[in-house]
C-alpha cells in the first residue's frame, strides 16, 4: 500500500518522523521528506508537480498536524 504523508515541512522534526516510518517498512511515497531542509528544494515548480502526482498515485493520504500548525498552507 502506497501512503502519501503530509505535514509542515518547515518543522525539521516532521520530515525526520516520516523518514523513520519509511525506514521501518512503511511505503511512504512523499518525496518532500528527502528535501525538507532549508535550500534543499531546487525547483518548487517541480516539487508541486511531484506532490500532485504522488497524492494521485497513493492508496492512502495521512495529514499530520498539531494545534500550533494552523493555519496550514500548501495545495
Summarize this entry quickly.
The longest helix is centred in the last third of the chain and has 14 residues, at 44-57.
**Beta-strand content bin:** 5-15%
Which value, in Å, is the CA radius of gyration?
Answer: 12 Å
Amount of helix? 25-40%
Main sheet characteristics: 2 strands, parallel
Which strand order does the major sheet show? 1-2
Order of helices and strands: EHHE
Q: Please tell me the total number of domains.
A: 1
**How far apart, in Å, are the first and last alpha carbons?**
23 Å
What is the averaged pLDDT score? 86
How many β-strand runs?
2
SS element count, helices:
2
* Strand-pairing-aware structural class: alpha+beta
Q: Shape, please?
A: globular
Which parts are unreliable, with pLDDT below 50 for 5 consecutive residues or more? none
Oligomer: single chain
Amino acid at each position: 500500500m502506497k501512503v502519501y504523508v503530509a505535514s509542515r515541512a518547515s518543522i525539521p522534526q516532521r520530515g525526520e518522523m516520516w523518514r523513520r516510518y519509511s525506514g521501518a517498512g512503511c511505503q511512504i511515497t512523499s518525496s518532500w521528506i528527502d528535501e525538507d531542509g532549508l535550500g534543499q528544494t531546487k525547483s518548487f515548480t517541480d516539487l508541486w508537480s511531484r506532490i500532485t502526482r504522488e497524492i494521485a498515485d497513493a492508496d492512502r493520504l495521512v495529514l499530520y498536524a498539531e494545534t500550533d500548525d494552523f493555519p496550514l498552507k500548501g495545495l
